[in-house]
Design goal:
Elements (H helix, E strand, L loop, with lengths): L2 H36 L8 H24 L3 H19 L10 H9 L1 H12 L15
């Protein structure tokens, strides 16, 4: 197998493996935010904002995981965000109770997962250390 094919496979595999991190982060954040909403007098008013917050924070965490696993740059976060978007879109097709959001707004909010994941990949990307310049003082 050529080295480029192996790197390409590792790239896609790392993007898929980052979905485990995304799903774990989503579950943990949703449990935390459900506890926060449940402790208020009117939890229904906080359901949408807290669930969107959990979704985007977990997408950022998934982008960080993608770039840490692959060692690649923003592309791994973008691919991971696209996979996450596909998963969330497929989940939205299940026959759950209707959402209070309109379909165009719902689609826009789902597509905003990709930029959130890219932000995560930028945050998680290892910064290249620039060699320190030696300061030679003339005497």
């Amino acid at each position: 197998m050529k080295k480029s094919e192996k790197n390409n496979r590792n790239f896609w595999l790392s993007c898929l493996l980052s979905q485990i991190t995304w799903a774990t982060a989503t579950i943990v954040l949703m449990l935390i935010f459900c506890g926060i909403a449940y402790s208020t007098a009117d939890p229904d008013s906080l359901t949408v904002p807290l669930s969107l917050c959990a979704l985007y924070l977990s997408a950022v965490i998934g982008g960080i995981a993608a770039v840490k696993i692959s060692g690649d740059g923003i592309a791994s976060g973008c691919i991971s965000g696209c996979i996450t978007t596909g998963i969330v879109f497929c989940l939205s097709l299940l026959p759950f109770p209707d959402s209070t959001l309109d379909i165009p707004l719902s689609i826009i909010l789902i597509l905003m997962i990709i930029p959130a994941s890219i932000v995560g990949s930028v945050i998680g990307h290892k910064k290249e250390k620039k060699p320190k310049k030696l300061n030679h003082h003339r005497r």
